Amino acid sequence: MTKEELRIVYMGTPDFAVESLKALVEGGYNVVGVVTMPDKPIGRHGSVLQASPVKQYAIEKGLNVLQPVKLKDEAFVEELRSLNADLQIVVAFRMLPEVVWNMPRLGTFNLHASLLPQYRGAAPINWAVINGDTETGITTFFLQHEIDTGRVIQQVKVSISDTDNVGDVHDRLMMLGGQLVVETVDNIINGTVTSVEQDDMLAEGEDLRPAPKIFHDTCRIDWNGMNMKQIYDFIRGLSPYPAAWTELVNGDKVLSVKIFEAEKIPADSSQYNRGAILTDGKSEVKVAVDGGYVRVKTMQIAGKKKMQTEEFLRGYKFADDAVFQ
Description:
Blueprint: E1 7-12, H1 15-26, E2 30-35, E3 40-42, E4 48-50, H2 53-60, E5 65-66, H3 74-82, E6 87-91, H4 98-101, E7 108-112, H5 124-130, E8 135-142, E9 152-159, H6 166-190, H7 228-236, E10 244-250, E11 253-266, E12 277-279, E13 285-289, E14 292-301, E15 307-308, H8 309-315, E16 323-324
Parallel strand pairs: 1-2, 1-6, 2-5, 6-7
Antiparallel strand pairs: 3-4, 7-8, 8-9, 10-11, 10-16, 11-14, 12-13, 13-14, 14-15
Helix pairs in contact: 1-2, 1-6
């Protein structure tokens, strides 16, 4: 079977999933259907509907788009079955019911943004950076019952530098993901796929690190419980989105502040309470932490625009006893 004959259904929603779909379309593969999330209400009253990035690309390329509310809906399942796909590909979508992932004769494979079996879950890139890892990657694997546990097909490793934020790593993995999806499809067409059980990939005594969904409370900086490096990694692991945040206690005011960019300053900071803010009032804001200081470079007060520290300090004054908590 050739790539023109192989009937592919592609499933995905965000920007991360567009690159792999684009690689298939531009590579001449036969994408007979694209499944994505229903349009999302936006605006103050939710009166405007916004199509997902995957839908926008699919419509632009004249592809057949399906947008089920429920993946077990009989009408959707029948419509999907009528496409007679040989293979389904999932990138950043939803957990599929067996009636869907078990439908194509060649199965369904997923592109996941980690080196499985590590970082199973919804936010693998964030957690790899938050945990200070120096390496991550992408994995293609066949879907089975338990989420992110199927047999691994291929992996590509990617280094994480100490200055990368999650946006940097996301973009790197997104581009490589498109290449890996195409390679995986080619290997399936050629019958050269060899897949490996994830349990067989774990080193003896190696612990699994999860990648659960990130919520607002997850993003709060713990100035007392984390040391300098942990806080630094936490900030870059949530930047540019959804962003680490903290409460600024400044005199009698308490404000929510997001921090997008910071630097580590190893030093003896034991004379200050954790979270104490030190500033020259002009260009520098440092926070005393375990192991030194975290210099804040970019921040945003709730309701205001994101600003570099120098710009922020032109319009905002810290009291002598101001703290982040």
